[in-house]
Design a protein that fits this description.
about 850 residues, mainly alpha, rod-shaped, exocytosis, transport
Length: about 850
């Protein structure tokens, strides 16, 4: 201290004023001098004012001292007070003996009264560790009764305020002060403070236990976001040392990432288990059986649809996109109850995607909602942290949200190989190239199932991405989802197109040669192909038109399909059509092999009299199929494609029609050629090789048998054609008549001369054929018959007999012709028109 005798000015300046400037020290010295001078002046003024008092006091002291000397009051006798002190000590001893117990009891009573006063005044404080706080918190944790919790918090804050005030802590928050119901006054002893410290220590133990319980509740991932926000606020109220908001975000992030990986692994196990039950080797027969079953389910679903969606080949409706173009696939989709191993595999793949999407949809919005609250500083006041201190956590929040999205995208991209934009190609033994389909496809996956489940997967991804758009993720987190969506759309459309083309090459294997009840002029294969082709094109349209929602998309409305998608799908549309047409030709010339022997008995009953092992029957049915394909199926499919994809395919349709016409001519001419060879042999044998001497033959009496035989061959052809393809009868017989007329012309031209009888006989036979087949006479055949008559006239030798008899002989030939026609009316009734049969 400055007033102490041992005070050292140098040390004082060195320790206290080591950083004080010289000017400040000079000013301080001047201030000290002025202070000392003022105190000296005040002391002088005091002495001057009270001088007479000092003199009087000095005289009194001297007088008392003189009296003490005169009465011998020395130090040895305690200046005369010894006897008095002894008497007082004796009185004090007696008083303590008499009044000591009473005073002691009084002190105890005062202590008890003081303690009771403290206990009564701060009863809530002492009840905190014993029952009240613990009861309210426990009751809250079990029942979530927030009024009870508020009561517990209010008592906790009052106790905290009381304890801090007791310890002289003036930095008490407004929230704590407002929690006090009235102003408390303090006048407690150290003992009371120790009691308060012990009570508060017990309260702290309870609060720590409660904080631990609340943190465990906060780490529970299955609790709702509202409950977790309340839990975070509860922890803030309990003055937790941890940041509960960050604790929740961190634990929730780890749980979401872990659960997403577990869900993916579990989905992979289900997929592997389902694939294990499938045949590992690729087989066109197995795939065709699966495709046939899938198309049958499409037909059943389409027939149950009350609204016309274009499933019927003969309908005049709707575009390939269906209602709205992007939804409603389940309305015509594969039945979920179909229990094949391939369907189970596809369902496992779909469920894996749906599980990951559902997990992201359930967890990410809540996670990002709390992250935004954390980023926006909603919890800054409660934690007392500044924005700068939380900047790293804010960045981490954004990073965690992006990591969750990236993990979702990465898992799906890895499984479906979305990063490989182009499918690999391998060279086969015949030097041809074959596209290698991705390994995630089930073995022998048919294009209907591929289209169905790819569309569902893309739709699920689109719904998930669009839902995530609504939560407004920060930074480039949402771009990861839109990128995933675009890669999935392209990959799935690409794979579908390759499967579409592949299955079209073996689609002919689905032919069972059963006529379509709705279109009996063709087999059921065309209806299957129409539904298959349309479904693949429609599914590709739906995938190509599904997009993630962006701000631009919302403003511009529905996007048109990109040109790259249109070109890819268009190419597969045409390629699969050409492949199907090639398969039809292969069907006609190859013997029938049942796709499934177990169904053959039932199919044979449906075919009735159709001989599927006869190449003639197969060619006729194929020609009829080509005709229906040209007139109806292709035009309808192309029209639907143009309406959906908003492109022109006029030139492509012309090319397709030209190809169909070429195939039609190849097949039909092959059939007619083989029948014409039979007739040619009969005609040639009858005219040239049967031994008839056309120069010397007698007058005709009947039509030669070879003419009946040739016509009966045509009757057999008529019966064969009418049994399966009645609409081809006129075309077949007309062409056969033209060929037969040519054969007759060639044969008669080889005869050098005709006599009267020969000329009349030839005329009778040609006219008999002419009139019998008049319904099928074409300009070409008519011209050929005219040439035959000219040939007969040219080769006839009129000198053989008198020309006067010619007219009478011709009349006789007419009579024979009428007689022959009447006698064969039953045999050749099939050549007459319906009205002539009456």
């Amino acid at each position: 201290m400055v007033g102490n005798k041992s005070f050292q000015p140098r040390q004082f300046l060195l320790q206290v004023h080591k950083n004080t400037s010289y000017n400040d020290l000079v000013r301080g010295e001047e201030h000290l001098r002025q202070g000392v001078d003022q105190r000296a002046e005040a002391l002088k003024s005091l002495v001057h004012t009270n001088f007479d008092r000092f003199v009087s006091a000095k005289n009194t002291i001297d007088h008392v001292y003189e009296e003490m000397k005169s009465k011998q009051l020395n130090e040895d006798q305690d200046y005369g007070t010894g006897a008095l002190r002894a008497a007082l000590e004796d009185a004090n001893t007696r008083a303590e003996q008499i009044y000591g117990p009473i005073v002691e009891r009084r002190q105890r009573v005062d202590k008890v009264r003081s303690t009771l006063t403290i206990l009564q005044r701060y009863k809530f404080f002492f009840n905190l560790p014993s029952t009240k706080l613990l009861f309210y918190f426990t009751f809250f944790l079990k029942k979530y009764i927030f009024s009870k919790y508020d009561t517990a918090i209010r008592d906790y804050k009052r106790g905290k305020y009381l304890y801090q005030s007791l310890n002289g802590n003036e930095n008490i928050g407004d929230e704590v002060v407002s929690a006090m119901s009235n102003t408390e006054t303090f006048g407690m002893t150290d003992l009371h403070r120790k009691v308060f410290e012990k009570v508060w220590a017990e309260v702290n133990k309870i609060v720590v236990e409660l904080q631990s319980v609340l943190l465990k509740m906060l780490a529970d991932p299955w609790r709702s976001m509202d409950e977790q926000e309340k839990t975070i606020n509860f922890l803030f109220d309990l003055d937790t040392t941890k940041d509960p908001a960050w604790f929740y975000l961190d634990s929730q992030y780890l749980w979401i990432v872990g659960l997403m990986k577990e869900t993916y692994e579990a989905g992979l196990e289900k997929i592997k288990l389902a694939m294990h039950s499938l045949e590992s080797e690729e087989s066109s027969i197995v795939r065709s059986l699966s495709l046939k079953k899938a198309i049958a389910q499409l037909s059943s679903a389409a027939s149950n649809n009350t609204k016309n969606d274009g499933s019927n080949i003969n309908s005049n409706s709707s575009g390939m996109g269906g209602r709205g173009g992007s939804g409603g696939i389940s309305s015509i989709g594969i039945s979920a109850s179909s229990g094949g191993a391939d369907i189970r595999t596809w369902r496992a793949i779909l469920e894996m995607v749906q599980s990951l999407s559902a997990l992201l949809h359930r967890c990410l919005p809540d996670f990002w909602r709390l992250s935004k609250a954390f980023i926006e500083g909603k919890f800054v006041k409660k934690t007392g942290n500044s924005n700068t201190s939380n900047s790293s956590n804010v960045d981490q929040c954004r990073k965690m949200a992006r990591n969750i999205v990236d993990l979702y995208s990465s898992l799906l991209s890895t499984h479906f190989g979305l990063d490989e934009r182009v499918l690999p190609v391998r060279r086969m033994a015949d030097d041809s190239e074959q596209t290698v389909l991705p390994s995630f496809l089930p073995p022998n996956a048919n294009s209907i199932h591929v289209a169905e489940y790819f569309t569902r997967i893309v739709a699920d991804l689109a719904n998930c991405v669009n839902d995530m758009h609504g939560i407004h993720l920060a930074g480039d987190a949402f771009s990861g989802l839109t990128e995933l969506m675009e890669k999935a759309r392209w990959k799935f459309v690409d794979v579908l197109c390759k499967c579409w083309e592949r299955d079209a090459k073996t689609f002919y294997m689905l032919e069972d040669w059963v006529l379509d009840p709705e279109s009996p002029q063709c087999t059921g294969l065309l209806k299957r192909y129409y539904e298959y082709h349309k479904f693949c094109a429609r599914s590709a349209y739906k995938m190509a038109s599904l997009m993630a929602v962006t701000d631009d998309a919302i403003q511009q409305g529905r996007h048109d399909i990109g040109s790259d998608y249109v070109e890819k799908i268009r190419s597969s549309f045409l390629e699969s059509t050409y492949a199907f047409l090639d398969g039809l030709v292969q069907l006609a010339f190859s013997d029938y092999v049942p796709l499934n022997e177990r169904d053959e008995l039932m199919l044979a009953k449906k075919r009735d009299k159709i001989d599927v092992h006869s190449m003639d029957i197969r060619i006729l049915l194929t020609v009829s199929n080509l005709s229906f394909m040209r007139s109806t199926v292709m035009r309808k499919l192309v029209l639907l494609f143009e309406m959906a994809y908003k492109c022109s395919m006029e030139e492509d349709l012309k090319t397709l029609i030209d190809v169909v016409d070429q195939l039609d001519r190849i097949l039909f001419n092959d059939y007619v050629k083989r029948k014409s060879l039979l007739i040619k042999d009969i005609i040639r044998q009858g005219i040239l090789l049967s031994g008839i001497d056309w120069y010397s033959i007698s007058k005709p009496t009947e039509v030669h048998s070879f003419v009946y035989e040739a016509l009966m061959t045509l009757v057999m052809v008529h019966a064969q054609v009418s049994s399966v393809t009645r609409q081809l009868i006129h075309r077949a017989l007309s062409l056969l008549l033209e060929n037969m007329a040519n054969d007759c012309l060639e044969s008669f031209r080889q005869v050098e001369r005709f006599g009267m009888g020969g000329m009349l006989q030839a005329t009778l036979e040609i006219e008999f054929m002419h009139q019998t087949l008049s319904q099928y006479l074409t300009p070409t055949a008519s011209e050929t018959l005219h040439l035959i008559y000219q040939t007969l006239e040219y080769a006839y030798n009129p000198q053989q007999q008198h020309s006067g008899n010619l007219q009478s002989e011709l009349n006789h030939v007419k009579e024979l012709l009428v007689f022959s026609r009447k006698s064969t009316v039953v045999q050749f009734l099939c050549f007459k028109q319906n009205k002539d049969r009456r």
